[in-house]
Specification:
Elements: H1 8-20, H2 31-63, H3 72-85, H4 89-108, H5 116-127, H6 131-139, H7 142-152, H8 156-170, H9 174-182, H10 185-196, H11 206-228
Amino acid sequence: MCTVPNNLKGLLRFCMEAGSEFSSEMEPMDPQRAKWLREALESMTVDLASEMRKRIVTIIQNISSSDFDGVMEDTASALDDLIDFTEDMNLADIFLKIGGLELLKALFNLPTNVFSAQTGMLLSNIVQNHEEAQKVAINEGFLEISMQLLLKERDPTNMSGLLSGISSLVRSCAFSQKHFIQKKGFESLFVVLETTCQPNEQNKYERFNEKTSFFIFCLCQELFDEQLG
């Protein structure tokens, strides 16, 4: 038996070898191979958590750097990596436990909007379909901050990213929905749409307008269903 791989290539090689031995008859996996695969997956999770931690440290150092512009590309790359990592729900949960919450706070409090889209997407990954994470984010004030940034933002990409975070933060969570209504979330979205739906702006904001309308529709449907229940 080969050693447990600490990278994707090693695991891929195992899967290819296992696939080449595929039989139409279901057979139990050899216990030694099952143990090896389990250890491989656990090892990869540890390695990915370490990689996420490295990215978090890099970003926090960079956004505090006196040469902010000089490290902007490096920061954006690290953010993209974190967004990719946190597409996995298990890694998204780990992210919050290794400094991710502090990172989000720092990103939301930046005086520039250069990373607004990525911050919104990262928030979206962390809280989507995760009620406990949604509650933590609400209590940290991320909904209010996101709405405030959205009201001031005019870049379509940044607006879509922020909306993704807001949508994932609010949907499928009664606690978040109640907070959204209390903070006049619907009214804020309509204020934004008054600008983005102007005849001379519709092409520029077409995608954002579609996403916002869909979010409002889905949220209203959820609220209606809750009342019926």
